[in-house]
Amino acid sequence: MTGTSLGEGLALRPYSASDRDWVASAHIAHYRSVERFDPSFDDVVWKALSDIDRRIEEDRTFGLVLEGSADVHHGSIFLCDTGNSARIRLFYLDRQLHGEGLGRAMLLAALEAARDSGFRQIEVSTFDTHAAACSLYARTGFIEQARTRCISFGRRMAQVDFVHDLVTERAVS
């Protein structure tokens, strides 16, 4: 995938290893300060990036980075190959850009790239405390499959699992 303009000087481009430190620090800073996740989250992010970096070389796993002028990073989304399906991981958008349709644009670009890569289905898990993410997935054709109470990263939440069928999906506008 080549870079895709999202307007306002923002472009979505393929992830490269040089983005790794920014992706980790952005996720860790946000989830520790805003979502109040405990320090165990840091290791999960670094392990996820190590897995992604390895898998990019081995299978259809890919990542996209939202970048502004002067190469300033604003967001990321990854799809990891699980066979016929891909799993969304490390989806992040700077809070100051929320509400402008950029998260949706990033998600739709990732779905299109997944379809082009031959994936038949997309899976994602999030938490009920991330109401905006749950709403975005539902509005974009994802179907909730499960909601499981848990304690993760020091917080009592419910994990929400969604699936999006790329084969039989209807047009999402």
Report on the structure:
This protein is α+β, with helices and mostly antiparallel strands and 173 residues long. It has a domain at 4-120: Aminopeptidase (3-Layer(aba) Sandwich). The chain is 33% helix and 35% strand. The chain has helices at 20-33, 40-58, 102-116, 131-139, and strands spanning 4-7, 10-14, 62-67, 73-81, 85-93, 121-127, 143-152, 155-165. It has an eight-stranded mixed β-sheet, sandwiched between helices. Strand 1 (4-7) and strand 2 (10-14) form a beta hairpin. Helix 1 packs antiparallel against helix 2. The chain starts with a strand and ends in an 8-residue tail after the last strand.
Order of helices and strands: EEHHEEEHEHEE
Instruction: State the CATH topology of the domain at 4-120.
Output: Aminopeptidase
Computed over alpha carbons, the radius of gyration is 15 Å
Distance between the termini: 22 Å
* Biggest sheet: strand arrangement: 1-2-3-4-5-6-8-7
- According to CATH, what is the class of the domain at 4-120? Alpha Beta
The name of the CATH architecture of the domain at 4-120 is 3-Layer(aba) Sandwich
- Which regions are unreliable across 5 or more consecutive residues at pLDDT < 50? none
> Helicity range of the residues?
25-40%
Strand segment count: 8
Shape: globular
Beta-strand portion reads 35-45%
CATH superfamily of the domain at 4-120: Gcn5-related N-acetyltransferase (GNAT)
Q: What structural class is derived from the secondary structure elements?
A: alpha+beta
Oligomer: single chain
